[in-house]
Design a protein that fits this description.
- With about 100 residues, the protein is mostly helical.
- Helix content is about 55%, strand content about 0%.
- Helix 3 crosses helix 4.
- The longest helix has 14 residues.
Length: about 100
Amino acid sequence: MTEPFSCDIMRCDTLARRLLPQMRAEMVYRLVNERGISQSEASKRLGISRAAISQYMSRKRGFNREDLPENLESVIERWVSAVASGEGTITICDVCRSADLSNER
């Protein structure tokens, strides 16, 4: 039986440093390529520079040769949908609950 999820600052720190940049890069890529949102519009919606969007798209920022854990797929898609529609939110806790970081420590 697995333990219920509990918040842990070390787990969140690991998540922020190792997974969020790659997740953000994937989310930006999907917004532009799958949802047809322009890079300029994506930068406005996300509050980041147009240059940052360009770096995500060219895999110069946030790229990691390791695949993201499959259990984060639904969180990334929810994030894309939230940004594309302007409705809904994703929190670090949502990501943390979906990630199995116990194997990455």
